[in-house]
Amino acid sequence: MQPALEICNLSKSYGPATVVRDLSFAIAPGEIFGLLGPNGAGKSTTINMVAGVGRSDQGSISVFGHDTRRDYRTTRRLIGVMHQEIVIDNFFTIERALAIHSGYYGVPDDPRWRATLIERLGLGPHLKKPMMKLSGGLKRRFMVAKALIHRPPLLILDEPTAGVDVELRRTLWDFVCEINTAGTTVLLTTHYLEEAEAMCGRIAIMNHGRLIALEPTTDLVARLGGRRIILHLQEPMNQLPGSLGEHGAQLEAGGRAISVSFAESFDATALLRELARLEIAVRDIETRRTGLEEIFVELTGMTDRRREVGNR
Amino acid sequence: MTENTPENRPFVAWLPFWTLLKREVLRFLKVAAQTILTPIITASLYLFVFGATLGERISVLEGFSYAQFVVPGLILMGVINNAFANSSSSLFVARYIGNILDLLVTPITPSQFILAYTLASMLRGLLVGGSVLFISSFFADLPWTHPLAALAMAVLASFLFSQFGIIAAIYANTFDALSMFNNFLILPLIYLGGVFYPISILPPLWETLSRLNPLFYLIDGFRHAALGVGDTSLATAFGAAGLMALGLFLWAAVLIGRGYKLRV
Fold it and tell me: Could you report the predicted ipTM of this complex, rounded to two decimals?
């Protein structure tokens, strides 16, 4: 089966600054794929090149087997893109703008599909309002509808939930899951890593234009994740007893807590016995799972440190 | 929800063009007070000044009143100004506020893109020109010696300045820069191009210099078609206007085709 999106050795520079370096990955039809990275990592530049807004210096991009340069009329019809920036046409109402946008794609207006999008994204009560009077959240909802109006089999969402309230985020993700189930492939960038962890089957992480991780979300979290026990103490201590250090314990929160990081399997009995022997009074016990956020910080921080060493 | 696959997707090849054309026409009609009414009022004031007050008292062309002389120039000025204003402001604002992205991600071709912006701008220019023509009929009767040539020159002028508007909108990075195209290029060329006087009454040096003004050929050609007399022949006027239109069209086509300042 043709990949929904295939990027091969993609590079892009703006003057002396290389923003995407030799990037390659493929997304299978039906996936929800997360493309993550800190600001300036090259995610939006990559998306712009896929959507046809930006031009690559090297490499190729194909959408369902069609090259985005040679066969741009086909690939652009197959892609629906919601940009990170608010992109709206202030001259028209939501309903008129959606009909216009469908026409831009060469797709005759389908009032039933338009009504479905309006209903599912909660745009119904705002149809006659001028676009500039809509709230930021409504504008984003409209942009999702706009990206889907021509029924693209590949939907690209660039930071769709940036600055929107919890209810909209939930509504949006429910809808994205629904259209994904119906066959739409989704490429998603977000800064809400818990959303990416919950939504995406696979995740790619970019930093400084390079791909630094690409694997199934569960594998990534299992490989790089871990757990932590935090013991909140009744009385703060100045120094950690040496016997606790042997268990990998560390003092934190100004001596008011002891934390122990461990892999997925860990026998806490020995640690608890040692605490009892030392007569250390524990006020509360907390366990934390290392999520994508910590992994992301760790991975991007690691590449930053490598770059610093390399630049010396 | 219906099945969503890449195959058998409905596609009407010319729909992107028609949609953009419709969008552009709806845009200028939506703000008609600014895009249609204001230029008509401005032209009407000119007509009042030169038609009802001075028009019958002075003459710069033998056999015609000043009102008769000035009306063709005012009609074409309306066409030129509004064809330029439409494509330049619409495209520049789309670039400036970023909603040009809505078009750049679609399968619209560069030729469809240019054609839609051009036709919408021509329509606005000709709509204003037609309105000025209607109002002018209350102030002066014109013989319309070559009506088809007059129409062709108006269409050519609107096409030419639609292209120029596209070019200006691509090169301008600020509203100030865009207004400079109008204030420091188009307006002086219009006023010095023989709208209000025949260049034949100028001293020889200024007459020669006026013949280097590209707008002279549009204005004089249109007036020649309307009155039957002009400072240059219709063939020369059409030849010069046609060459200019072709040159500007090719320039705009290269800019849009390459996505200059649009696709980065």
Answer: 0.89
Q: What is the mean pLDDT of residues A282-298?
A: 78
Which member of A78, A86, A100 has the closest CB to residue B6?
Answer: A78
- As a whole number, mean pLDDT of residues B182-207 equals 90
Among positive and negative, which fits the CA dihedral A275, A276, A279, A284?
Answer: positive
At B2 the pLDDT is 44
Which residues, at least 6 apart from A216, have a Cβ–Cβ distance to it below 8 Å?
A: A201, A202, A203
With beta carbons under 8 A apart, name residues in chain A contacting B11.
Answer: 77, 105-107
Q: What are the residue ranges of helices labelled H in chain A? A: 43-51, 72-78, 94-104, 111-120, 136-148, 166-181, 193-199, 217-224, 242-245, 269-277, 292-311
Mean pLDDT for the stretch of residues B171-188? 94
Q: How many residues does chain A have?
A: 312
Q: What DSSP state is assigned to residue A158?
A: E
Question: Does pLDDT of B131 surpass 50?
Answer: yes
Token pair belonging to B262: 């649009």
Distance from CA of B110 to the nearest CA of A (A): 11
| Mean of pLDDT over chain B | 92
Convert A103-141 to b/e letters by CB count within 10 Å (16 or more is b): bbbbbeebeebbeebbebbbbeebeeeebeebeebbbbb
Mutate to test the interface with B, among A2, A105, A180 (most CBs of B within 10 A): A105
Between strands A227-233 and A257-262, the pairing is: antiparallel
> Mind listing the pLDDT tens digit for each residue in A122-170?
899 999 888 888 888 889 999 999 999 999 999 999 988 877 788 888 8
When CB atoms are compared, the residue of A52, A55, A107 closest to B105 is A52
How far apart CA A153 and CA A4 sit, in angstroms, is 8
Sorted by where each starts, the structural domains of chain A and their CATH numbers stand as 5-222 (3.40.50.300), 226-289 (3.30.70.1560)
Which amino acid is residue A198, in one-letter code?
A
Radius of gyration of chain A (CA): 24
| CB pairs < 8 Å spanning A and B | 109
3-state class of A252 per DSSP? Answer: strand
Q: Quick one: tokens of B149? A: 């040539």
CA distance A6 to chain B (A): 15
Beta strand spans in A37-162 (E): 58-63, 66-67, 79-82, 154-158
> Which DSSP state fits B260?
T
